[in-house]
């Protein structure tokens, strides 16, 4: 067992997440490796410090009082924001009642909407009966609440990139940590994830081109090359082949770079501010 | 993440707008959620506000919860997002602070600690130790912090953490390990003296 594997297992052991047989392997390694023995001692010490110091607390005030007041004006919607239907509604707003709809939407939103129209292939093109031949007598030309539109625009601009980065981060972690352990049974999963991320990359890159994120754009370029190789991985990749990919992840610090660009960072770089009310669930 | 008794029934009632059922759920989960948020943010007053926000959001969005068996991880996911949203509002960053982030991480990895830890006193008092540990946590990238707070400080299983973070158990293991390494590099000499 190599030291990096041993350290990972030592950490899991301290959280009670290791089987006895795994632990006996680690113990064998520890008996001959003073560096890992020191790591164990250090990890043990700081784990105990965290657990003993950051103990369970109770809130000082009655939280329910503040919650109950707000529930009174909190109707329960049938479902959360459905992007697909929001998109359809939004689109109908354009087709059916262009003038009031556009009045609601500021120039930037219109441009972004058009951009999204082009960039979001997974949004099914609006169905013909509502768009290509708009039949105003069948579709009520009610104005679309501008809040819905705003919500939709924000949700789609940030959440797709956020979601992409989160999944890319996880994939990279997985590659980073699989080490010489890569199991042939993991390959199909890695390949599928890489393929779907690769398909989204072009969309994400175009969205990023609208922001100031030069560093992130560069990182995504590097990621794209990796995804391409991952998506084309053989069923039984040679160790060399996979290790080269892994080396790229590590050398380029891709995990850390992606992790830096979390939601907060991205929000500031996209020009649209999220509403206070937005959740990412 | 222990389920409260009759959780499934309570959730169904809440979906129909029953507030007293929601109050029961709140009582079952307020401490775990509050403590998680507290360790993510570090300040008790902020943690109280955010915890309230979490439950209001949960109530409003309860119908988007498809399987009531996953309520606790769903709730913690809201808590995680609300904590991160709060941190974003509290500490606005400039677009050009990316370099500073790299520097900070580099220094952390190199074992220096530019912002978090006060000068290491020989005898660290317990309050002081809490501040020290909390600020070390605050210096972690958020996915590492989430994994460490849930998996180590709050003692949830990696499987539960994986459900909250929507990642694999292997990922949790790796994140907790990375968090431990970074924290140990920062705190090692200080804890050795305390
Ligand atoms: Zn070793």
How much is the average pLDDT of chain A? 68
Helix content of chain B: over 70%
Q: Which kinds of small molecule does this entry bind, naming each only once?
A: zinc ion
Oligomer: heterodimer
The percentage helix of chain A is 55-70%
Q: What is the number of strand segments of chain A?
A: 0
Blueprint (SSEs and pairs):
The complex is a heterodimer of chains A (281) and B (194).
Chain A lengths: L2 H12 L5 H13 L1 H20 L9 H9 L11 H14 L1 H7 L2 H13 L26 H33 L8 H23 L4 H18 L7 H13 L2 H7 L2 H7 L12
Chain B lengths: L6 H9 L3 H23 L2 H17 L10 H20 L7 H12 L16 H13 L3 H12 L4 H8 L3 H25 L1
Helix pairs in contact in B: 1-2, 2-3, 2-4, 3-4, 4-8, 7-8, 7-9, 8-9
Kindly describe this structure.
The complex is a heterodimer of chains A (about 280) and B (about 190). By secondary structure, chain A is mostly helical. Chain A has 13 helices and no strands. Chain A folds into two domains: about 45 residues, no CATH class; about 180 residues, no CATH class. The two termini of chain A are about 40 Å apart. The relative contact order of chain A is 0.08. Chain B is an all-alpha fold. Chain B has nine helices and no strands. The interface between A and B is large, with 62 and 78 residues. Bound molecules: zinc ion. Zinc ion (ZN) binds next to helix 1 and helix 3 of chain A.
What labels describe this entry?
heterodimer; A: mainly alpha; 2 domains; 13 helices; 67% helix; disordered C terminus; B: 194 residues; Rna Polymerase Sigma Factor, Chain: A; Arc Repressor Mutant, subunit A; binds zinc ion
